[in-house]
Amino acid sequence: MDPGTTSTPMVRMAGVQKHFGDLHVLRDIDLEIAPGEVVVVLGPSGSGKSTLCRAINRLEPIDSGTVEIDGRELPAEGRDLAALRSDVGMVFQQFNLFAHRTILENVTLAPIRVRKVSKGEAENRATTLLERVGIADQAHKYPAQLSGGQQQRVAIARALAMDPKVMLFDEPTSALDPEMVGEVVEVMADLARDGMTMIVVTHEMGFARRAAHRVVFMADGEIVEDSTPDAFFSRPSSERARDFLGKILTH
Amino acid sequence: MNVLLDNLGEFGIRFLGTIELFVVSSIASLVLGTLLAAMRVSPVPAMRVAATTYVTLLRNTPLTLIMFFFAFGFPRLEIVDLDYFTLAVIALSLYTAAFVCETIRSGITTVPPGQAEAARALGLGFGQSLGLVILPQAIRAVVPPLTSVQIALIKNTTVAAGFSVVEAGGIYSTLSERGYSTLAGLLWVALGFGVLITPMTLLQRSLERRWSASSGGTRVAAGAR
User: Fold this and answer.
1) Cα A149 from chain centroid?
2) Which of A155, A248, B46, B87 is spaced 20 to 30 A from B8 at the CA atom?
């Protein structure tokens, strides 16, 4: 596939600034992501990469600048923001499955309540999605009864159930035991192959090399590099990126 | 034993009054308290202020004073003419709702922030996030203290006896009029309250058991999570 040829970017951030108190966590962020593009955001901890991801659906309010999804600017609060958020799937580090609802209910809740899909239709779709991520046989269990890797795959299915235009992944494998990382990365790589627009904050260099079209490298709240995975990993242009890669690739 | 058997009718009528007071006030206080808790976490500042003021006012005022106001002050305002039973229900409900609110609010703070974030990220509005995701988990977390609040309510119904409402707290006065030992009578009244409270304790246990699987809860002994 060839992303980047259509006119309207799926996600557009322009002049985005964000402070946490005295800390300037997002510095003048400009970023455009084309439909179908898979962008991996890398950077040392505290570089602002998670905040960047969360600013895209306004889970993290920004001080100034604009964020657009598919050409529409994100409103500040209220019903319109909720509507726009429903088009943006999000997967969290801590899974955040609804603890009091079964796996199936987790996946059907938003389609029924937000999209007003009928219960039967939502359940059919949920079952298909759960099969796709390999959890269909656990549909009637509660989140706490599943492993971390299984929970994260359900979280991906839950986000997909809303037919999102873009998926945000905020360190989706960082809370997982090492042996469960593979199963989640596999599901994400499948999604990337299917043409989903994805923004992935991760430390999984394997996924970045394999599935990403672009790597965005952040440090101290700034986008320092924006290039192809191949260029980034073999010829990083900035000192900070070389330093970062040196630290993570040595072990 | 004679105190009970000779006055069985009296005991029956008055305990029935207690149960009626309790059931109506319990439902009203749970509904109002949940609404107040929702207001206290609402994004609208005016709602938060209103609910906080309510809780501060009602929680800090002795129930007897509130009951006194509704029994003697409120009728003088001549807004609506209500009987003592209704006035007692209002006083008990308004008072208990402040405690229900604070109990549920403490439950809300136990729900991880990620739950609300996930709900918002899926496009659920504030009301939906609260009603479908946060409150169900918050209430599950506070079943034991919420039961305590309701047990306090059932015992607080006796305050209504002072305002001519027919309920169990007033049994002793009838007994003493009839020349029975009030002390023995009060022991039976205490036992009666024990009988009323037992089902609530059992309900608490069964709810805790039923919801333990879905809470993903903290098990101190197992050291999980």
Assistant:
1) 16
2) B87
